[in-house]
Amino acid sequence: MIPKRKNSNKMEKLLVLSLLLISTSIATSQSVTDPVAFLRCLDRQPTDPTSPNSAVAYIPTNSSFTAVLRRRIPNLRFDKPTTPKPFAIVAAATWTHIQAALGCAREFSLQVRIRSGGHDFEGLSYTSTTVLASFIGMYLGRSDKMLTVMNRDFPELKLKVTDCTEMRWIDSVVFWAGYPIGTPTSVLLNPKITNKLFMKRKSDYVKSPISRTDNFERLVDIKSSIDAENFWRNEQSIPVRR
Ligand SMILES: *[C@@H]1O[C@H](CO)[C@@H](O)[C@H](O)[C@H]1NC(C)=O
């Protein structure tokens, strides 16, 4: 169930395709290699003959590079000339594409960013900037239960049942993708971004690790032992012990 928005701001669209954005690693910025060599590397990897690895890769000299990159940027804050651009984009459609992209990123000391699923509203696959908040909530349950919780813990919001919309979870995905309530779920098969806008959204995060035992420390140990270089890097992932 989703409280109605109080303003008419459109939401950014969910991204559906898996795009691997290959960026020059900060740690090894001396390794700026020829992007064409990256394409050749992709074709040296195991490949599906019906869909060669390099045929889904875009490098900056490719005339479609900018269009492919911009098509997946829902937030205009990250669509500026000064926004860092990837070294290559792999529009992976098969496991072999993903394997090849990761293998070559490793070989060229490049960093990989994954663009898919809609959880990139903070621009983690670009860079972080600042300002502008919007306030929308989703509760996995019935509205009467949520109103009880909200009016007990956040009475200042004066939330009313008429502020809320109950829907199936899958319909909430359509809602978050910015379509009017009632739109058929089949629109999710079309990953096109229609409404672009400037925005900043923030999730709430716990301040200390949720762990009943020493799980977090154990995960940090495991991460540190199998990926000491932090190749599988994401701001929200288990960190490497320093
Ligand atoms: C751009 O890259 C795509 C995907 O690899 C490829 O199909 C296309 O031929 C390339 N275009 C040019 C002009 O090189």
From TrEMBL:
The keyword Hydrolase does not apply. SUPFAM superfamilies: FAD-binding/transporter-associated domain-like. The keyword Hydrolase does not apply. Residues 1-29 form the signal peptide. Keywords: FAD, Flavoprotein, Oxidoreductase, Signal. GO terms for molecular function: flavin adenine dinucleotide binding; oxidoreductase activity. Residues 214-239 form the Berberine/berberine-like domain. Pfam families: BBE. This is Berberine/berberine-like domain-containing protein.
